[in-house]
Amino acid sequence: MYEVTVEAGFSSGHYLRNYKGKCENPHGHNYKVLVTLQGATLDHAGLLLDFKDLKHVMRPVVDRLDHQMINDLEPFTEINPSAENLARYFFEETNRQLAEMTKGRVRVKDCTVYETDTSFAKYYE
Ligand SMILES: Nc1nc2c(c(=O)[nH]1)N=C([C@H](O)[C@H](O)COP(=O)(O)OP(=O)(O)OP(=O)(O)O)CN2
Ligand SMILES: [Zn+2]
Hints:
alpha+beta, Tetrahydropterin Synthase, Chain A, 34% strand, zinc, 2 helices, four-stranded antiparallel β-sheet, binds ligand LPXRUNBV
């Protein structure tokens, strides 16, 4: 199997509901998100997927959250914008597009969201 990973960053505000502690108050993070793809076959150029194409898929998903209060945006008006839920959100948004683009040749293996340099969550299926 082959894997390809691309990293992107965004800066946003959030707060945690049903949480007791400083993170129940609005605050911000310089988030980092890593999307890793996997697949068994390469294209004619010997690529699982061009990094450029993965960045192109990730960009609008990231830009939607950048410099926003994440709690105000669907689906985070209902579910908490924890690193775990953000990782799942990025997984689902990118996987749907990539499966379509590559006719199933490439899928998202996992997605990792860093809130700080030392705290991160990963989602995979
Ligand atoms: N499992 C999770 N735990 C926490 C999350 C989360 O998304 N998943 N989020 C938070 C808060 O958003 C908080 O901003 C980040 O917490 P923390 O790593 O504690 O951040 P600090 O930089 O303040 O770390 P210190 O070590 O306390 O300085 C909380 N938990
Ligand atoms: Zn936080």
